[in-house]
Amino acid sequence: MTSTPRFSSIPAPQSEKRPVSDTRHGITRVDNYAWMRAENWQDVFRDPSTLDPAIRTHLEAENTYQSALMADTKALQGKLFDEMKGRIKEDDSSVPSKDGPYAYGTSFKTGGQQPRFFRTPRDGGPETMLLDGDFEGEGKAYFRLASADHSPDHTKMIWGFDDKGSEFFTLRVRDLATLQDTTEAVSDTSGGGIWNAQSNGFYYTRVDANHRPSRLFYHQLGQPESEDRLIHEETDPGFFLGVGGSTLNDFIFIDMHDHETSEIWLLPANDASAEPKLVAARQTGIEYSLTEGGDVFYILTNADGAKDFKIMSAPVTAPEKANWTEVVAHKPGRLLLGHSAYTNHLVWLERENGLPRIFIRDRQTGEEHSIAFDEEAYALGLQGSAEYDTEVIRFSYSSMTTPTQLYDYNMRTRERTLLKTQEVPSGHNPDDYVTRRLLAPAPDGEIVPISIVYHRDTKIDGSAPCLLYGYGSYGMTIPASFNTNCLSLADRGFIYAIAHIRGGKDKGYDWYENGKRLHKLNTFTDFIAASRHLVAASFTSHDRIIAQGGSAGGMLMGAVANMAPGNFGGIIAEVPFVDVINTMLDDTLPLTPPEWTEWGNPITSATDYAYMASYSPYDNVAAQDYPPILAVAGLTDPRVTYWEPAKWVAKLREIKTDDNPVLFRINMDAGHAGASGRFSRLEEIAYVYSYALKLVGKTQM
Hints:
Blueprint: E1 20-24, E2 27-31, H1 41-46, H2 53-69, H3 74-86, E3 97-99, E4 102-107, E5 116-121, E6 128-132, H4 133-136, E7 144-150, E8 156-162, E9 169-175, E10 180-195, E11 201-207, E12 213-220, E13 229-233, E14 240-245, E15 251-257, E16 262-268, E17 277-280, E18 288-293, E19 296-301, E20 310-315, E21 325-328, E22 334-341, E23 345-352, E24 355-362, E25 368-371, E26 379-384, E27 392-398, E28 405-410, E29 416-421, E30 433-441, E31 447-455, E32 466-469, H5 487-490, E33 495-499, H6 509-513, H7 521-536, E34 545-550, H8 552-563, E35 570-574, H9 580-585, H10 592-599, H11 606-615, E36 629-634, H12 643-655, E37 662-667, H13 678-695
Parallel strand pairs: 32-33, 32-34, 34-35, 35-36, 36-37
Antiparallel strand pairs: 1-2, 3-4, 4-5, 5-6, 7-8, 8-9, 9-10, 10-11, 11-12, 12-13, 14-15, 15-16, 16-17, 18-19, 19-20, 20-21, 22-23, 23-24, 24-25, 26-27, 27-28, 28-29, 30-31, 31-33
GO biological process, one term: proteolysis
GO molecular function: serine-type endopeptidase activity
Keywords: Hydrolase, Protease, Serine protease
């Protein structure tokens, strides 16, 4: 691969080598760039100014370098930003959801970056603005609202915020009569709280020194935080603790989980002094979740070999596993994704043959029906209802060409009421675009779905550039939903593609299991197969494919760059998890112990270590030609720490044999999710898209 003329020849930052060796399972690895990991990383998450000056200087040099090489795209970035902003209804508002005497919703004001929370009388009337995110975040370089949850008696609200990007959330309580915050404040939380039944206290989870939510507390209003009662503590660092509430406000659910095992304890919502009651003890590989159905719990679980899940029921008074009775049977290949219950109906969201649908069962008669759509690829979202005694639920629908439509659905009459269609102020004609679902053969004979969208005028002769997106981890499914941002690429002749690779649950639980741990290589070979199929089908050519992925999808980017660099004309790796072995060996990092079930434990298992070593992007950088690469990260990211991409970029520059530039852009005021405001985030997307356009020579305005 020869040097590209699309970038100037400004020299890249030089990275000092400070070799550190590590021997595990008889294998010695040398890391020249381990010094980029700040020893005081926990302090940096809370106060970025404490970062080692030498590391800060290096990161700032990286930003200077990427800014210089991207300087010729400034005008294009501005144009893309204006286009994407023009597709957003700036003063947009949700359709309020009814709950008791009120209906609650969110809105944005023209020019506003943050959401606002409001309510109206139940059946319509004037809005009362409960919380203005723009006002609360004024003057802060970073500000993210976590949640806003009203109390059962509708007199108060818990809201949470993070102003560092490091996901240490502070909770406050607002009096909804005065619209003023009380003196209550709880720090270092996961971001939300669950009210008790009396509306005079709430439950919340606190993160520990390693940024893991491990302890559940109860806060009584009017008492200092120091007197909050510790309700439950998770002592296994591989499990996270979460808290939720039931629709009837009868129970508090305490959930302990990793990526394949769960355990739930119950508390009565009206007794803060009660001790938690265990539903079913954790059993490796068994997951379950509860929803309340009056005198029963409905339990979604993969127990007893139900790999794609089934629904059971148990009496509220005796929810132990011995009392579980089957309600919805397991059907291989039909993955049950979530469930909810109401007075007369049981509802669940499922996926079969890669497409979602909503199923509804009458709890009295057992009669079932489904809600589905006819497009080749689409996305469904089940919002349900905030109320238990209802016949009406809410769901959303979209496709890669169809803007999001929000419906109310009467489960008894089966009547759909369209409440809202996503407005695209600058205009959108679905007929201008084509969406397809392709099927790519993988090396082992599996078939990998690919969802694509492109402008109707784009020639399908192999000449079109393509942005190929992939994730493929944690069982996450990337829906074929409407994305106004990618239209800026489609309008410039790009094909926008999503590879539904193994590691997600796009084709059921098997699809996930065959893309994790000792099957992880399938994720990467699936993505490579998707790129080859797009070329074989004359949609694009390899030097016109720009691969994109973030977080675990960033690991995918690093892996395919090592494995098949000639298949791609460029790589975009956002907050990339690329230093896999070092991170999985460091059990002090926030996510490491919970992630062992996903990737393996290289500390205790020589097999896991060797397999991980076979694909870890940082450890497999080779003396070969690579396409141009862009890495994007955030300084205060607790999920994928900044030093992973920093080290990867340095090693690429050291070892690779071509002259293609490797750019590293780091947001010094943000974490894993990037900039916090809706328009600030669009600026980051405009930057990434301008990079893709630059690579294929489409920098025309």
